[in-house]
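Example 3.2
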Amino acid sequence: METYGLEKLGILNPSAVYRNLGPAQLVEAALRRGEGKLSNTGALVLTTGKYTGRSPDDKFIVDTPAVHDDIAWGKVNRPIARERFNAIRSKICAYLQGREIFIFDGFAGADPKYTTKFRVVNELASQNLFIRDLLIRPSAEELAAYGEADYTLLVAPGFKCDPEVDGVHSEAAIIIDYEAHEILICGSHYAGEIKKSVFSTMNYVLTKAGILPMHCSANMDPVTGETAVFFGLSGTGKTTLSADPARKLIGDDEHGWSEDGVFNIEGGCYAKCIGLKAENEPEIFGAIRFGSLVENVIMDEETRELDFDDGSLTENTRVGYPIHYISNAAIPGVGGIPKVVIFLTADAFGVLPPISRLSRDAAMYHFVTGFTSKLAGTERGITEPVPTFSTLFGEPFMPMDPAVYAEMLGKKLDAFGTKVYLVNTGWAGGSASMGAKRMKLAYTRAMVTAALTGAFDNVEFKHHDIFNVDFPTACPNVPSEMLDARGLWADKAAYDEQANKLAAMFQANFAKKYPNMPRAIVEAGPQAK
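Structure, written as tokens:
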């Protein structure tokens, strides 16, 4: 039996080893092993138990002299000793003895100059299908010449840590050893941990190579090739807004920005499913077919139909699929220098303008601040929208000091004259707690289209004194009154109170986290009255 080097990891006697199986073989294996069921569209559907989202408290980075000074240690990047890592690694390898092992050898980084090889060793066939969907799949020739991986992931959700013995937070652990080029994931069946561990690794690798890694989606005009990137945390609309039938999708979540342009880190998409409708998101809806993996969506046992409105297991229902399931995907996922950058936020206060134009200093302010609302289910313990600030719109995945990434973005904006807009996909006419509705997707799409096509270039803008941004007075296919956040509130005094409250939160957060930022950037942010 070919073991593909598993003995080097300490896995000496697996019952069977499968490398780079196709989707049909992986689906067959998952069904045989009772890991999931097929929907009426052919997608593999499963539940992930109590871990239905990322578990940030369970993530660690091995603290070694080689990387110590590179990492921004704290609540996000928690240190763990190499001895602890090695002990858990040994236990995982012992756990995997005598089991079926599924290996996927793939790539991260669509630009060949910056491609990194990842070997993922899975206990579950379904999770091997997931990472096959999400990473860049090698051709037969590339697989034959694959050689040694740059990084190896050991993924064993069935192995549970003992926190007191293993020195971790719970039965789950996600541990990255940048020096040893290994990643451990155990205790959690949520496949997103695998994807984000690769991203966290690339955010270190690319930065060291002088490339700006970005938690963003990206698309481009199919005729001109003009590229746009969309920053935003999970649930703010990155996947939805970038999957535009009129544009080529470069990728939905993770990219690098080099001197040549933007490239997708991944080879697939991981989209939220809650409330999914064919008329609103036809590309994502159509991607839920054979070969895709659906997590925590309720399925009718008789009809095998999926109920995308049922969030009883979690609001963070998900589907993973290869990017070529999107009909207008750009393959390979490479685009030019971004013409437009869009920061997406979901404002639970309902006071930010639905779209506003940012100066260079304001862009730096909002990039560093990363304001949004954590949506229900995106992380364990979050059951309703909660305002939050996540540095760089992706703080949980950025191992280095935020100033490193911010400085890199600032240099890009200066060098290429890229325009920046802040788009609020959140609540309008009132706060979420007041029962207000989120901005209609059709209106948000129209605003984004206007930003990408230059439709705002000759439009009058008004200044918002509290948030210190400029918002347009007109936009094609959007009623003008929808552009004025204050005007949508029946009680203008209540709006002013809420807006000042949020602006004060911006200021307090910025003063605490970034006390040494240049004055020009500080003054470009919100100003509570």
